[in-house]
């Protein structure tokens, strides 16, 4: 029941602002004719108001009041008032809970059978709703009502996001698709330490290891003690938010935890491929040589980063927004700096940066709701106010001074890959010293970069994320050179995954950690592969190939 496709997806960084770079033509709205129950023609279209008004029940995560305008709440704000005034849609929330409780609350709601008219669901929840015939097919209303601007965002990157919610040629949800770039791994290195030790930018894995060795042995912090680390790892060895050690494995043309196509055209689980063994062996050697924290296997990400903020570690693989994790020390000491580099190759051949496993949500409408097109109108309204032809005057009204008020909208779509576009625009403005073409958000980043250059250390992250030599510049390099690889399996877990995956993931993590520690031989990787297949891996592989081959 699934269509074959390929997906690159990442979580946008919640801490970053959005950008506005859309052409006027994208926001032009078409109108259509519809027929009322009396048989007379009535105006209808992407942003036409309901008269009389309609009610729409939904659910939502609580929005911090600091992100909303004064006096606004999650339940009633500038967006909900505008929906009622301009669209004739009155939003009623069945529940509003803390963000961390949304998934559990939604599962309870699905189990109860009392569904709201509009919901945000995960891929697993979407599959449950489709199997139970509880969600509307949105194909017709999307094609009829979606504005060109909304379609531009939803259908970005060759409609990758849409493919994950299209089953048997029916569109069951509108994906909240954020693009293919923001969560690819970037190599972060203490550039001030490199300068102090006269080290050059790494071009290969051997260069990376040499830098790590110098950081451990040549006293880069200058305290006369042997107390500094090379490469930061944590107890999770796959993509884990602010640490992405998969970037090291990618240098060996290996990936962890995703499904990829092998040379024979079959989909295989990447962690079981022979290239992973090579990367593990190299990490084992690095650990033995003292280039990795001896206790990394007991530390979560936050604990692992303590060494960086204590001036005791100099290298890690992380996302483009990693400056937020290491900015503490930067703010205290003006001599401290981190630089972003592309991941490096073990053999000199081009390597592909691995995207995290998809974690996509989509907006769906309860089957039987009289106005499924209301979802499309709400999204049209949001993208028009934030990115349409009048957004220069309209946007601030809805997003406020901090530009975060969009989170009060019942549904929202942001421009995919928006941050890389911002970096390009800002770098051009910095070079020309002319910010006149920047939108409001980009101008904010631009101004903050100038503040950093004038000595305001609190604005360092703007330079390192959006400046000319920044993490977004690295992501642009990946994009422009086709150096990205994604998880081919983007759907809800298969039956075998539901029953076997947790056990297999535990086996993988324990085996790989022991190998790096040197507690197990590198040849135990071969036993892991054999055990993985016997304990359910073969069954999962069969299911994945059956789905992706359709």
UniProtKB/TrEMBL annotation:
Coiled coil: none annotated. This is ABC transporter substrate-binding protein. Pfam families: SBP_bac_8 (PF13416). Residues 1-23 form the signal peptide. Residues 25-47 are annotated as: Disordered. SUPFAM superfamilies: Periplasmic binding protein-like II. InterPro entries: Bact_solute-bd_prot1, SBP. Keywords: Cell membrane, Lipoprotein, Membrane, Palmitate, Signal.
């Amino acid at each position: 029941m699934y269509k074959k496709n390929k997906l690159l997806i990442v979580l946008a960084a919640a801490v970053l602002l959005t950008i506005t770079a859309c052409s006027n033509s994208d926001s032009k709205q078409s109108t259509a004719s519809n027929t009322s129950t009396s048989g007379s023609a009535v105006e209808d279209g992407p942003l036409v108001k309901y008269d009389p008004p309609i009610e729409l029940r939904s659910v939502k995560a609580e929005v911090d009041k600091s992100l909303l305008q004064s006096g606004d709440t999650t339940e009633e704000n500038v967006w909900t008032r505008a929906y009622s005034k301009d669209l004739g849609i009155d939003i009623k929330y069945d529940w509003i809970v803390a963000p961390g409780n949304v998934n559990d609350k939604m599962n309870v709601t699905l189990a109860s059978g009392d569904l709201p008219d509009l919901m945000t669901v995960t891929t697993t929840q979407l599959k449950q709703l489709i199997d139970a015939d509880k969600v509307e097919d949105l194909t017709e209303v999307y094609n009829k009502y979606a504005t060109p601007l909304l379609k531009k965002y939803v259908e970005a990157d060759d409609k990758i996001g849409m493919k994950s919610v299209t089953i048997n040629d029916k569109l069951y949800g509108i994906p909240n698709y954020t693009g293919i770039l923001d969560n690819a791994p970037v190599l972060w290195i203490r550039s001030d330490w490199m300068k102090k030790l006269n080290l050059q930018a790494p071009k290969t894995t051997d260069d990376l290891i040499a830098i790590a060795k110098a950081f451990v042995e040549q006293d880069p912090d200058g305290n006369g003690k042997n107390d500094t680390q090379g490469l930061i790892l944590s107890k999770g060895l796959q993509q884990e938010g602010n640490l992405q050690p998969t970037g090291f494995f990618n240098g060996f043309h290996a990936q962890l935890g995703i499904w990829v196509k092998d040379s024979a055209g079959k989909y295989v689980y990447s962690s079981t491929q022979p290239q992973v063994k090579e990367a593990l062996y190299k990490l084992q050697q690095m650990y033995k040589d003292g280039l990795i924290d001896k206790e990394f296997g007991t530390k979560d990400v936050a604990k692992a980063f303590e060494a960086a903020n204590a001036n005791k570690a100099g290298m890690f693989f992380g996302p483009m927004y990693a400056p937020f994790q290491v900015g503490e020390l930067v703010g205290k000491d003006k001599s401290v700096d981190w630089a972003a580099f592309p991941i490096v190759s073990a053999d000199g051949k081009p390597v592909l940066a691995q995207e995290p496993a998809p974690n996509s949500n989509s907006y769906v409408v309860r089957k039987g709701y009289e106005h499924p097109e209301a979802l499309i109108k709400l999204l049209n309204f949001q993208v028009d106010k934030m990115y349409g032809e009048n957004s220069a005057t309209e946007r601030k009204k809805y997003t406020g001074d901090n530009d975060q008020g969009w989170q009060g909208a019942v549904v929202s779509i942001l421009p995919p890959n928006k941050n890389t576009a911002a970096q390009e625009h800002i770098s051009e403005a910095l070079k020309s010293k002319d910010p006149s073409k920047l939108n409001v958000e980009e101008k904010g980043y631009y101004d903050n970069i100038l503040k950093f250059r004038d000595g305001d250390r609190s604005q360092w992250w703007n330079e390192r994320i959006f400046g000319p030599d920044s993490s977004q510049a690295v992501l642009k390099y990946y994009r422009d050179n086709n150096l990205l690889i994604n998880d081919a399996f983007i759907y809800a877990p298969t039956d075998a995954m539901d029953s076997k995956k947790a056990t297999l993931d535990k086996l993988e993590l324990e085996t790989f950690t022991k190998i790096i520690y040197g507690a197990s031989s590198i040849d135990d990787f071969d036993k892991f592969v054999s055990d993985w297949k016997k304990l359910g891996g073969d069954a999962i592989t069969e299911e994945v190939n059956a789905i992706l081959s359709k």
